[in-house]
């Protein structure tokens, strides 16, 4: 019996696992995103879709679109078809407040969502799943609520427009129309189905089983009667990392049975750990990631000491062979955060052909990240309790489509 279980676990670990609670690649390698798209059944973002975004918004698409950080979608085309005809939509994203300090990977969906809000001029709801983290991370109710409010400050610091944005914590907001939708969703999902989608087992407590409807229903405008009264057909677009896909597969599956439209999705890959793409950013290892609370000195040290380099062991060899850009973390990080396309191309060429050394690339990355983190720190320091209350107040958003 014991042996069987062990074999089963080993068989599992040799396959890649991506779900809201676990992301691990096959045999310690890289995540295979093509395989993930096939398995989940989402669509790949192609050039023509990116061009279409450019045309419809009359601005250059975000770096995260141009460089394939957001690489997959579900029905994004349909959102654009409707938008082209003058029909707006709303955005929905969220965060599970499991830690005090956010790292750069946590900011990615919010930076991208801010761009979408500005480019399409649409309202946004942000769910803070303090209930989820209380149940999964074994935090007390009070501590999860405190973290939700702290994280809200970091989210607000990303620059969202208070006249178009509603931030809510599940502990505060669940009830009324939102809860009615949760019950409608829950009735459509059998235990077998939930075990299949989320991998729940008989050992999990029933709180976990009851959670997926909470994350599902912000996809339906009727869950926000103070925002979208009489707009039950307003479409929803969800920017998220692809590990959240199971929640929204379930949501899309049940929506038509409730007479609601399926939410559309736009999904990102994962931000790699400093140690390399097969490493994991882990809360228990502060050196695996750069945090928005890191000082300039921390950032410099972490990059110099831990950022996995694709450069060669000796300068002579490097000049001869050049860097392996495929595995190089400084180049990877620059491709997320260095806005200037021509500078990025220049660095890749010079470094890839051995004329530029790892130290020089790391120096440039240090500058870029220090500036970004500094900017975030200043913006967060300017977020007052009154501002948090303003974003989280249950209120209409009068200018949300302007
Ligand atoms: N479950 C997500 C997390 O742990 C938080 C979340 C809630 C979310 N709703 C969302 C993320 C919608 C993206 C989109 O981080």
Uncertain stretches = 1-12
| Count of beta strands | 9
Number of domains: 2
Structural class: alpha/beta
Order of helices and strands: HEEHEHHEHEHEHHEHHHHHEHEHHHHHH
The CATH topology name of the largest domain reads: Rossmann fold
Largest sheet: spatial strand order: 3-4-9-8-5-6-7
Oligomer: single chain
Instruction: Estimate percent helicity.
Output: 40-55%
Largest sheet: 7 strands, mixed
CATH architecture of the largest domain: 3-Layer(aba) Sandwich
Q: Residue-averaged pLDDT, rounded? A: 94
> Which ions and ligands are bound to the chains?
tryptophan
Q: Compute the number of helices.
A: 20
Roughly how many Å apart are the termini?
Answer: 63 Å
- Give the CATH level 1 class of the largest domain: Alpha Beta
CATH superfamily of the largest domain: HUPs
**Large-scale geometry:** globular
SSE blueprint:
Elements lengths: L1 H12 L3 E3 L2 E3 L8 H8 L2 E2 L2 H11 L5 H4 L3 E5 L1 H9 L4 E7 L8 H17 L3 E5 L1 H7 L4 H16 L8 E5 H4 L2 H12 L3 H8 L7 H5 L1 H5 L18 E7 L3 H10 L9 E5 L27 H11 L8 H7 L7 H9 L3 H12 L5 H24 L3 H8 L10
The chain binds tryptophan.
InterPro entries: aa-tRNA-synth_I_CS, aa-tRNA-synth_Ic, Trp-tRNA-ligase
Organism: Arabidopsis thaliana x Arabidopsis arenosa
EC number: 6.1.1.2
């Amino acid at each position: 019996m014991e042996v069987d279980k062990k074999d089963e676990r080993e068989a599992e670990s040799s396959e890649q696992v991506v779900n809201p609670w676990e992301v691990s690649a096959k045999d310690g390698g890289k995540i295979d995103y093509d395989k993930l798209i096939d398995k989940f059944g989402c669509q790949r973002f192609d050039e023509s879709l990116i061009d279409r975004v450019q045309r419809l918004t009359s601005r250059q698409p975000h770096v995260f679109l141009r460089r394939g950080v957001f690489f997959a979608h579900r029905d994004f085309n349909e959102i654009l078809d409707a938008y082209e005809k003058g029909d707006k939509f709303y955005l929905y994203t969220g965060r599970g407040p499991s830690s005090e300090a956010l790292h750069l990977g946590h900011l990615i969906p919010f930076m991208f969502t801010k761009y979408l809000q500005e480019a399409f001029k649409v309202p946004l709801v942000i769910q803070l799943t303090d209930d989820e983290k209380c149940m999964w991370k074994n935090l007390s109710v009070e501590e999860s609520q405190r973290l939700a409010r702290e994280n809200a400050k970091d989210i607000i610091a990303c620059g969202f427009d208070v006249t178009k944005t509603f931030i809510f914590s599940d502990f505060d907001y669940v009830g009324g129309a939102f809860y009615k939708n949760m019950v409608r969703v829950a009735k459509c999902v059998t235990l077998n189905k939930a075990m299949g989608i989320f991998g729940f087992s008989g050992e999990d407590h029933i709180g976990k089983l009851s959670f997926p409807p909470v994350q599902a229903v912000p996809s339906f405008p009727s869950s926000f009667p103070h925002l979208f009264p009489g707009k039950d057909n307003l479409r929803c677009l969800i920017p998220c990392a692809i590990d959240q896909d199971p929640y929204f597969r379930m949501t899309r599956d049940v929506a038509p049975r409730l007479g609601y439209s399926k939410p559309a999705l736009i999904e990102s890959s994962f931000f790699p750990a400093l140690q390399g793409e097969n490493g994991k950013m882990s809360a228990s290892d502060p050196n695996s990631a750069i945090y928005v609370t890191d000082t300039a000195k921390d950032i410099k040290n972490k990059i110099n000491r831990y950022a996995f380099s694709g450069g060669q062991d000796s300068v002579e060899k490097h000049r001869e062979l050049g860097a392996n850009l495929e595995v190089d973390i400084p180049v990877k990080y620059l491709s997320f955060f260095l806005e200037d396309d021509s500078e990025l191309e220049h660095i890749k060429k010079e470094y890839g052909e051995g004329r530029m050394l790892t130290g020089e690339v790391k120096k440039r990355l240090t500058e870029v990240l220090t500036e970004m983190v500094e900017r975030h720190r200043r913006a967060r320091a300017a977020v007052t309790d009154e501002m948090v209350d303003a974003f989280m107040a249950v209120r209409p958003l009068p200018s949300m489509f302007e």
